[in-house]
Amino acid sequence: MFTLDYEFSTSIYTFSSKLRVPGIRLWAQNQLSELKQEMALGCSLNLAILSLCVLLCLKLNSANEVVASSRGPFHLTDTHVDIGAAQSGICASAVTMHGYKCQEFDVTTDDGYILSVQRIPEGLAGGGGMNRPPVLLQHGVLVDGMTWLLNSPQQSLAMILADNGFDVWIANIRGTRFSRRHVKLDPSEPEFWNWTWDDLVIHELPAVLEFVFQQTGQKIHYVGHSMGTLMALAAFSERKQLDKVKSAALLSPIAYLSHMTTALGVVAAKAFIGEITTIFGLSEFNPKGDAVANLLKIFCAQPGVDCYDLLTAVTGKNCCLNASTVEICLKNEPQSTSTKNLVHLAQTVRDGMLTKYDYGNSNYNVAHYGESRPPPYNLTNIPHDLPIFLSYGGQDALSDVKDVETLLDSLKFHDVDKFYVQYIKDYAHADFIMGVTAKDLVYNQIVKFFRSNQN
Q: Where is each Partial AB-hydrolase lipase domain found (predicted)?
C-alpha cells in the first residue's frame, strides 16, 4: 500500500481550488480530510491518478538525456506548439518543404468526426503511374500523423515508402490538432470526447480505409505504431476491414500491457480508479494544458521521482534518438486524447486482458453489450493467412517482451509464410518511429515485406 504525506495532499488541494472545477475541488478536499484521518485508501487514490497521468500522457512530452543535459530540469509548464504546422497543415509544414507532392483531405466518420488525412502520392523521383500500392500510416496515442515525419526525409518512414514506389496516406485520429472537428459537436463540449479506442476501431479505421480504397481502387498495406497496432488487431480479430487491408506492419504492438516494466505502470495497474473522468471533471486530456501540467509538476516534486528523463522511465531507454529529432518532436507533440480513452488503456494494464471498454457497472455493460462484462477481443480469430510483419524491442517498457510473447502466442497458428517477426534487442518504444537506425533495421524490411505481399 502506498501512502502520501500531508504536504503533498495539501498541494493537490491548493492547486485544485484554482481550477474552478467543483468535482475535482470537492474530491481533493475529501482526500485531504481522509488523509488527516490517516486513511491509506485515500492516499492510494491520489497516487494512482497521478501515476496514470504520468504514464499515459508523457510518452513523448518528456525530456530525455539529450535535452535535459543542455536545458537543465524539464519545465512541465513549457508549451511546445509548432505554430507553422497549426496554421498550414502537415503537408506544408513537413512534406512539400522537402520537395515531395502532398495532398490534404477531410474524411468524415459515420459518427460525425472530421479527420485530417494526408497523401504523399509519389517519391521525389516521381513515376510509378497510377497503380502505386497504397499504404496507410496510423500513429499511436497522444501524438498525430507528424510522428512519421520527425526525422529527415531519408530517415522518415513516410518518405522512404514514397521513394520506394508506394502511395502513402497518413491518418490523424479524432482530438488531435488537425482533427478537432465534428459535424455537430465542438471540442469544448464533453460529448466530443466521449469515446475510446473502441470507437476508433468501429468508426474511424473503417472510414479512413474506405476513403483510401475509393481513391486508389486497391487494397491497402497498413502500418501501425503503439495504439495504431491495437486498432488493427482489434479490427482483424472481429474479421473487419479484411476486404480493404492487404497486409499489416505492427511496430511496438500493445495488445497486452500487463507486464510493463515501468514502476509508474505498476502503480496505475494496481490502484486504478475507474471513475477518473468524474473525479477530474475533464473530458479532454490535454497534456499541454495547465491542469495536467500543474498536476505533473506537483508529482515530479516528490522525492524519488526523476523527471529529467521521464521518456526513458516510461517507454524504456531508447537507443537511437538524436537531439534534433527530439526537439522537433517536442515542438509538435503531445496531442490531446479523451480521458475516457486513457481509462480504457489503463483497464488493459490492470486486467491483463484485451476487452471492450468496461463501464464499471454490470447494468451499464449489459445496456451496451448485452452482458455484465465487456466482451474480449479474441486475437486467435485473426485470419491465419493475413500477411503480418511484427517488430518489437528488448528495451521497450510499454510493449514489454513478455506481453508481446502473449500476443505471439495468440498468433501461433498463423501461416508461417505470412508471418514475419523481428526482435531488436536495443530498441525501445520511440526508436521505431524516431530512431536514426530505423531505416536500416526496420523500414527497409517493411518495404521488402510489402513488396513480397503485393499480389
A: 95-151
The answer to whether 134 and 105 have CB atoms below 8 angstroms apart is no
318-356 pLDDT per residue, tens: 777 776 666 676 676 678 888 888 888 888 887 888 999
Is the Cα torsion angle 336, 227, 359, 47 positive or negative in sign? negative
Give buried/exposed letters for 399-433 (b at 16+ CB in 10 A, else e): bbbebbebbeebbeebeeeebbebebeebbbbbbb
Of 11, 156, 226, 336, catalytic? 226
Gap between the Cα atoms of 65 and 121, Å rounded: 37
Residue 117, classed as helix, strand or coil, is strand
> Residues 350-407: pLDDT tens digits?
788 899 999 988 999 999 999 999 999 999 999 999 999 999 999 887 788 989 999 9
429 catalytic per annotation: yes
Question: Which of 144, 198, 309, 396 is flagged as catalytic?
Answer: 396
| Reported confidence tier of residue 261, pLDDT bands at 50, 70, 90 | low
**Tens digit of each residue's pLDDT (9 = 90 or more) over 158-183:** 999 999 999 999 999 999 999 999 99
Grid cell 501515476 in the structure block, residue? 51
Residue 452 catalytic? no
Q: How far apart are CA 145 and CA 91, in angstroms?
A: 10
Active site residue 226: yes
